[in-house]
Specification:
There is one protein chain. This protein is mostly helical. The protein has one domain: Orthogonal Bundle (MetI-like fold), CATH 1.10.3720.10. It is built from twelve helices and no strands.
Amino acid sequence: MPSSIPASVTRSTIARAARRKPLGTFGAVIVIAMLVMAVFAERIAPHAYDETIRGARMKPPSAAYWLGTDNLGRDIWSRIVYGARVSVMVGFATVLLGIVVATVVGVSTGYLGGVYDLCVQRIVDAWMSFPYLVIILSVMAVLGPGLLNVVLSLALIIAATSSRVIRGATLSVAQQPYVEAAYAAGCPHRRVIVRHILPNVMPTIIVLATINLGGVILAESALSFLGFGVPPPFPSWGAMLSGSGRTYMFRAPWMAIWPGVAISLAVFAFNMLGDALRDVLDPRLRGS
């Protein structure tokens, strides 16, 4: 049996990656913190997200209430923690669904080509010609607000935009000599796609998924701000900015500041992590 990788080698690899990509490492730390908050929200948050604390209406940040309280006496830190669960659920579910559809469309059109590629790509072009906000708001207006509907509407956008990039990567891989050698050896199309095309397109798919996570979190916050996101009382960072956050912005600015900081950190973290992964996984950007 092969021996396991020594812990010293793993630590040195992580330290070398942290030195080369400090912003990517910082983004990874924030992403891990978000995942921990989402999974263990009940243990991290000192109060329930809808718990009204008597006599604690619009209290400023203090030792008792780290980020202050809102106009209903709810602890903002607790609502930020539970809001991370919404962002993580929407982000990962949307990206998973959108990337799976984009991979099927991009790999199949790039590999098969011909009339199938022409017809599918013209449909994608027509879909991408509409402004994204118009598409999302139209879908949400028909389906109504809700977590599942937010995921479906955002996944449609990701599937269209990402399929073009994956198709381009598939066209490049399909011209490689090892793919032609697989044809010459008599490998069926299914085996060529699974064994040769997909593994070499996977770095592009991973980078697209990571970068799209930040955009999805920002889009979900915008939809919640407009009232099309997750319905109350479950907290969403965008919904916390809207409504009471805007109404009491000058009297209790922390009600709008902290949700905005959470959104900014999440988007920044996923973008930096995606850029670092792109540099690591793309052989043309690895350097010497």
